[in-house]
Amino acid sequence: MVKYPLVDAAVVEKGRSLVEFLRSTDLRVEAAILEINDDRELRLIIATPLVHEYGRLPIYDKLQTLVLGQPANLRELVDAVDLRSPSEGIITILDQARGSGRLPLNRWIEGEMHNGFWLEGLYIYFFDPKTFIRPTNP
User: Fold this and answer.
1) Domain range holding 77?
2) 135 within domain boundaries
3) pTM value?
4) Angle, CA 121 vertex, CA 3 and CA 32 arms, to 5°
5) How many whole angstroms separate alpha carbon 93 and alpha carbon 120?
6) What is the pLDDT along the chain (138 residues), one digit of tens a residue?
7) CA–CA separation, 19 and 70 (whole Å)
8) Residue 57 counted as domain residue
9) CB of 122 closer than 8 Å to CB of 108
10) Do 19 and 129 form a contact (C-beta atoms < 8 A)?
């Protein structure tokens, strides 16, 4: 993970540029979230069904290949990317927090309750998981 003492607007904009670029490719991005934890470690979570279909490493290799020839501002946050399936981790939590409403996009979420879930240290660029597999009750 990449450590930042403070997350400023420039980092958010670099993340936005990378997310917009990745959404223009065939990676099938369904969610993009900038997350910062208590240790000030930054992760750019990118959810794509390709992770479920092919695994993290091949898709991370593909992401690096796509970004390799791009301008430096797009390459800068690649080490902070955390690839996820739309059916795992924070994506499932955010889907539950969204409920039938909408999550706040394009602003920092610093300690807010959404549908009974406490969200903190998140900046949601895009959230539209289409291939989320919801658990069924037995």
Assistant:
1) 2-127
2) no
3) 0.87
4) 85
5) 12
6) 444 445 688 889 999 999 999 999 999 999 999 998 778 788 999 999 999 999 999 999 999 999 998 998 888 889 999 999 998 888 988 988 888 788 899 998 888 888 888 888 899 999 998 876 655 555
7) 13
8) yes
9) yes
10) no
